[in-house]
Amino acid sequence: MQEFDSIIIGSGQAAPSLAVGLARRGDRVALIEGDRLGGTCVNTGCTPTKTLRKSARVAHLARRAADFAVTTGQIEVDFPAAMERMRARSDAAREGLTCWLEGTEGISLVHGWGRFDGREDDGRFRVMVGDQVLLARQVYLNTGTRPFLPPVEGIDTVNPLDNAGLLALTERPDHLIVVGGSYIGLEFGQIFRRLGSQVTILHRADRLAEREDAEVSGIIADIMRDEGIDLRLNATLASVGKSMRGVLVTLGDGSEVSGSHILFATGRVPNTDGLNLASVGLSVDKRGYIATDAQLKTEVPGIWALGDINRRGAFTHTSYHDHEIVLAHRDGLTDLHQWQGADARVTTYAMFTDPPLGRVGLTRAEAQTLVAKGQRILISDMPMERVSRAKEEGETIGLIRLIVDAESERFLGATVFGFAGDEIISTLTNYMATGASYRIMQQALPVHPTVAEFLPTILAGLKPLEAVDG
Question: Over the chain, what is the mean pLDDT?
């Protein structure tokens, strides 16, 4: 039996920094991980995919060399080498994380799957890791999510890939079928197309990434088709099975798609089912997520839920922000802004297609819903083809959209879809956190020549948004 002040189960993006933060505040901390340190982001998510995306982008730019007056020979992608480069980057990130944690006094790394086993008479939580018993008064859950495979007829007869399985390949797929035309599916589809695979994307809705505005979905579809990706919209899966090529998919309309590999990018489910939460009186919703208050506290005092499992943002950056909120309240800080709690932050994210999509706050469609209820909202768009730096880079696909409340003059949302959109969106996200009037940004001195220098110009073109497009 081992005694600690705090136990952390799972090592997603909140956990390592939380462990170090608690240890530096004097806690004896146990960090439990049953798989590899770093969670999805380091091992099968952000780190490897962005590394592989770079190889894919370089291959794409090489094929476009003539657009920039550069002559090349035939472009070849060494797929095994690209995958090895990706894994080396992921391994290095994990090794750095391990050294950091092992080198921090007060942290004990425990390898195994942690689960609750009730409480001691004095109220401390019992956590089992194999045959080990760990005790603590505070437990932080950061167990993340795993891919969801839909119950499709015949799925057990093929080798369905998820993100981890796809990234484990050593040979390039001849024809990759991607089920799911949202963020993950689109990123992977474009990456593997640029690495040399044929790609077909099957999506159940009538447009890609349907949570985004219709114009954005349309631009995404144009990008994918221009790169030779076969899009099948309004596609439902009737069954999957083996074929001479590898996989045969039968759609609801009776048509068939055959390929060598099939990737399911169809959502994720929380890793809470193995935690034995009932033993400590902690409940989950019908999908397995844990409810928390704004400070990430659960219904059971002494237990916090951070990251994807609390449904307050399925992103690495929201998980990391969760740990900052916890430590801020642990320290009793009073000069708080977005560290007041998760309710104070505005959702922001990026889709790392090329060009990337950066998003924060409201879409145009969401803003129109508020206008219909009487709120006065201003909006201004600029296509990337009018942005000087985008022209100079030869990257003119996309748009910038800014949405502002007419009364308070505060930003309500922004879309930056195009060259450097994944970076530029943080300018707007951070500005929104201040609650300042858009007029301050409009009057600010920007750097030339950049994409972001056009933000004041776009703000100068704000006009009232109508509830219904005319």
Answer: 97
Closest Cα to residue 280, out of 126, 100, 174? 126
User: How many other C-beta atoms are found inside a 10 Å radius of the C-beta of residue 340?
Assistant: 16
- Convert the pLDDT of each residue in 413-434 to its tens digit: 999 999 999 999 999 999 999 9
Judge residue 392's burial from the number of C-beta atoms within 10 Å of its C-beta, 0-12 exposed, 13-18 middle, 19 or more buried. exposed
**Residue 413, helix vs strand vs coil:** strand
Q: Which residues contact 330 (CB under 8 A, 6 or more apart)?
A: 22, 25
pLDDT at 470 > cutoff 90? no
Count CA within 13 A, CB hemisphere, residue 231: 24
Tokens of 23: 């240890």
Output DSSP code: residue 153: B
* pLDDT, position 245: 87
How many Å apart are CA 323 and CA 335, to the nearest integer? 17
Helix, strand, coil share of the chain (percent; to 5): 35, 25, 40
Asked if residue 83 lies in contact with residue 52, where contact means CB atoms within 8 angstroms, the answer is yes
Residues in contact with 464: Cβ distance below 8 Å, sequence separation at least 6, in sequence order: 376, 377, 378, 379, 406
Taking residue 202's Cβ as centre, other Cβ atoms within 10 Å add up to 23
> What pLDDT score was predicted for residue 469?
84
